[in-house]
């Protein structure tokens, strides 16, 4: 991935990808707050379970109404480790709820985004989990430092 000119942004999936990425960020922020409020009236694992039960129900409903491709085809994935995404999802839900309840939505989200950016970049640099391998760029490290600086400014009283 590199820089895009304006014509590239509106072509194909790039513009749609940008919109979906922004929507994902919006939804994750709202979901984190919602999940934290549910946890306040129950407990951590009950709220985490509810999140995943309701996600399962929504996913199955959408699957049922959108073509019903072979549901068990997920098991044909070449690396069975990838099937553990749901387990990771349970721990993501737990850690987001805990982070938001301890730090508040804005501070927790900043740190979550920082961790996501650093880990996603390392996945690409090392070509982990089938990701396309890219070369390390020191300028991106400067970007991370700027992000940390921004977090420090934002968290300043």
Structural overview:
The protein is mostly helical. It has one domain. It contains 6 helices and no strands. Helix 2 (12-40) runs antiparallel to helix 3 (44-65), helix 3 (44-65) crosses helix 4 (85-103) and helix 4 runs antiparallel to helix 5. It starts with 5 loop residues before the first helix and ends with a helix.
Largest sheet: none
Write the H/E string, N to C: HHHHHH
- Average pLDDT rating: 89
Rounded to the nearest angstrom, the distance between the terminal CA atoms is: 37 Å
Helix share bin: over 70%
Overall tally of domains: 1
- Please report which band the strand proportion falls in: under 5%, 5-15%, 15-25%, 25-35%, 35-45% or over 45%: under 5%
Q: Which stretches are low in confidence, meaning pLDDT under 50 for 5 or more residues running?
A: none
* DSSP, total strands: 0
Given the structure, what is the number of helices? 6
Gross morphology is globular
Structural class: mainly alpha
For the CA atoms, what is the radius of gyration?
Answer: 19 Å
Present the secondary structure layout.
Elements: H1 6-10, H2 12-40, H3 44-65, H4 85-103, H5 105-126, H6 138-155
Keywords:
mainly alpha; 0% strand
Q: What's this model, at a glance?
A:
This protein has 157 residues and is an all-alpha fold. It is 73% helix and 0% strand.
